Amino acid sequence: MNGRRILADFRVVYRSYTRNPIALFFSLVFPVILVGMFGVIFSATSSTTLTVYAVNDDHGSATSRAFLSALNNTSVVKISLAPVSSGDLAAWLGAHDHPVGLVIPRGFAANYSNGTTTNLTVYIDPQDEASSGAVLGAVQGVVDRFNLLAVCSPPASCAPVVGIRTANVGSPVFRYIDYLIPGLVGFSILTSPMFSLVDISSNYRKEGIFRELSLTPLSRAEWLTARVVWYVLLTFVSAGIMIGLGIYAFGAHVTLSAGLLPFLVVGPFFFVSLGMLCGSVAPTPESAAVIGNIVTFPMMFLSGTFFPVASFPPALRAVADVLPLYYVIDGMNQVMLFANMARAATDLLILVIASVIVFLLAVRTFRWRDE
Amino acid sequence: MAEAVEVSDLVKVYGELRAVDGIDVRVATGTVFAFLGPNGAGKTTTVEILEGLRRATSGTVRVLGLDPWRDGERLHRRIGVIPQDFRFFEKITAREAIEYYRELFGSRVDAGELLARVELLDKADARFDTLSGGQKQKLGLALALTNEPEVCFLDEPTTGLDPHARRAIWSVVRSLRAEGRTVFLTTHYLEEAELLADRVAVINRGRIIAAGTPREIIDAHGRPTRLKVRADASLAPLLKERLGLDARAANGQVEVDLRDHKDALRVLEAIEGSGLPWDALATETDTLEDVFVRLVGRMDEGTLSSEAPS
Fold first, then answer.
1. Size of the A and B interface in Cβ pairs below 8 Å
2. Same domain, B202 and B235
3. In this structure, is residue A371 part of a structural domain?
4. How far is CA A239 from CA A182, A231, A243, A261, B27, in A?
5. Do A371 and B55 make contact, defined as CB atoms within 8 angstroms?
6. CA angle B121, B124, B125 (to 5 degrees)
7. Does A370 map to a domain?
8. How far is B92 from chain A, CA to nearest CA, in Å?
9. Number of structural domains, chain A?
């Protein structure tokens, strides 16, 4: 490996790329359009009816059912019974990304009848102020009505028989836009190098440009390295734009830390190599495009790019587990959303091993010329 | 004089096809060697073997004393190659292309001087995809010279070019020879070979069917110099009878084969002495192209197989 030759080739890549409006559009503008489009769509839907997951520990009492029914009749929330006990509700809400929940304690009906105060527990996500505020408001409205109707004499001397206490859900709850940012950064890491390298590797061979280069001291590994460097830099720029837009335009809650950087390096490294490998094994540019699409499209949609993999059915989750992009996106999710550095490190390790293997395979398979 | 290129009994087989069938080629250092042949004759396959791009099936190949296939990396630093229909990165300018190659080879050539040499300085900042076919070939030639090669392989460098671009490339070939560099020129323009080459080899169906200087090839395989006059057909038997020369009449002309320049004077005297009207006197000598067409035609007919020189 010779740094001077890699730099010379890097300059050719940079100039070729920056002078190609289509390549620039798909690398830098298209991801911004995606963030904008999805951000607008899902910001708008966040104001619709909220589902409140409830646990009714006052089993089957008419009063508790009436309370939930009254809450359901508001236009703000929709009640759905959670399949867990009240003790597990907070954790369950956190695990399933639900921002709000409600627990009606045992003895609610009896206490209401004899005028003893009972506190309902409303679980909220402090980071999701809009959802929390809406649900607290709706619950408070129904509580007030129940207190007014409580039997006591004289009515003015009655203390409230139903109260509210709040608790936080088991883990931070994220909104769609929070998942979308790492997903779209991953989308960009996948598509730019894959489509470009598949195209280059087949067309340069057909046009004889690789043949020209084979007559120079530039090695295949140096040629590939220059492209890896370029796509790493391009990824930093496009990721910066997308993350900035997500945070400042759509209020995404993502954590930026140094733990993100390895994914922005190893991700492009992997997909440059994979693109080269796909283009090299294809006999013609046309078949290269087909192979590239077959490899790229499942990853594009099944790796957690647009929707969290946790929300997939088990069969699709198993598919995601073997897709390299899943480890890029999951790793970034762990760093940017969950602060789970141990799992991020595992994702990174898998990616590094896969990248080295695919890089070596690409260098070995990639031929400057047919013979 | 040392040999820059030495090829002995070179064979290249693709399946059932013997693309190159036991050829011998020697090119002296500092000379221009033209490799001629019709399409599909085996020219490009041979050149690609010499460049280290293809592996020979059998035979010995040495370029600058190196085996091109085994020592390709070392050889490529010392040779320059311009292929047929040169292609490059579309968005890169001519100057940037030279600078790129200069960095790859660690060369110190001046991009401006090199572009001026191939008459492309006015297009130094034009991107490759905006250059004409001739300009692209000129850039290919400039790139082939970036590493100041000892041997240049030019594979049909002027095919499809306008006369101006073709002459510019010829001028560079001549200057390379003057600098003591060796040029291995593949072409199917006979005029180009005749003008530029010190030695020529003609290949057809994978075999060399003629080799030598253009003059030697014409002398060995061409027809005698002819004298032609526009005259009555009865002049032909008259000349044949009086001078014992081969004379023919066709299309209102009489054509006489000459053995030497003295024959020309004797023929003129005989024509004048015949009293027959005549005009439009001319002499005609075979060109390399005439010889090429005859040789290739005869080989295709199968009449050359027993007399092909190596």
1. 63
2. no
3. no
4. 9, 12, 6, 10, 58
5. yes
6. 150
7. no
8. 6
9. 2
Kindly determine whether residue A16 and residue B87, on different chains, have CB atoms separated by under 8 Å.
Answer: no
Same domain, A110 and A201: no
Question: Residue type at A334?
Answer: Q
Query: Is B104 contained in some domain?
Result: no
Q: pLDDT tens, position by position, for chain B (310 residues)? A: 578 999 999 999 998 888 999 999 999 999 999 998 888 888 889 999 999 989 999 999 999 999 999 998 899 999 999 887 789 999 999 999 999 999 999 998 999 999 999 889 999 999 999 998 888 988 999 999 999 999 999 988 888 778 888 888 899 999 999 999 999 999 878 888 888 999 999 888 899 988 888 888 888 787 888 888 888 888 888 888 888 888 888 888 888 888 887 888 888 888 888 888 888 888 888 887 788 777 777 666 655 544 433 3
> Which two tokens mark A172?
């931070």
Indicate the DSSP class of residue A169: -
- A131: domain CATH number is 3.40.1710.10
Contact at CB, B104 and A218, closer than 8 angstroms: yes
The whole-angstrom separation of Cα B152 and Cα B154 is 6
Instruction: Count CA atoms closer than 13 A to A187's CA, side-chain side.
Output: 25
**Whether residue A229 sits in one domain with residue A160:** no
Nearest CA in chain A to B45: A371
Rounded Cα distance between A313 and A296, Å, is 21
Residue A125 belongs to domain spanning: 47-168
- Residue in this structure with the two tokens 């320059």, named with its chain if needed: B80
What does the alpha-carbon distance between residue A325 and residue A303 come to, in Å, rounded to a whole number? 6
Nearest-by-Cβ selection for A208 from B73, B83, B89: B83
How far apart, in whole angstroms, are the C-alpha atoms of residue B137 and residue B158? 8
Which residue of chain B is at minimal alpha-carbon distance from A215?
A: B76
Q: What is the pLDDT of residues B189-226, one digit of tens each?
A: 888 888 899 999 988 889 998 888 888 888 878 788 88
Residues of A in contact with B153 (CB under 8 A): none
**A196 & A328 share domain:** yes
How many domains does the structure of chain B reveal? 2
- Do A60 and A95 fall within a single domain? yes
Interface residue ranges in chain A relative to chain B, Cβ cutoff 8 Å: 4-5, 7-9, 11-12, 15-16, 19-20, 207-209, 211-212, 214-218, 369, 371
B214 with B256, same domain?
no
Task: State whether residue B86 sits within 8 Å of chain A by CB.
Answer: yes
Yes or no, beta carbons of A8 and B104 under 8 Å apart: yes
Residue B190's CATH number:
3.40.50.300
Kindly report the number of other CB atoms within 10 A of residue B278's CB atom.
Answer: 17
Residue B36 and residue B161 share a domain: yes
**What residues of chain A lie within 8 A of the CB of B105, using their CB?**
216-217
- Smallest CA–CA separation between B74 and chain A, in Å? 9
Q: Is position B16 within any domain?
A: yes
CB contacts of B51 in chain A (<8 Å) are 215
CA distance A309 to chain B (A): 41
B119 falls within a domain: no
Cross-chain Cβ contact A217/B53 below 8 Å:
no
For testing contact with chain A, the best of B87, B96, B107, B139 (most A CBs within 10 A):
B87
Whether chain A has a CB inside 8 Å of the CB on B83: the answer is yes
Residue B273 belongs to domain spanning: 226-284
Its ipTM equals 0.78
Residues A58, A35 share a domain: no
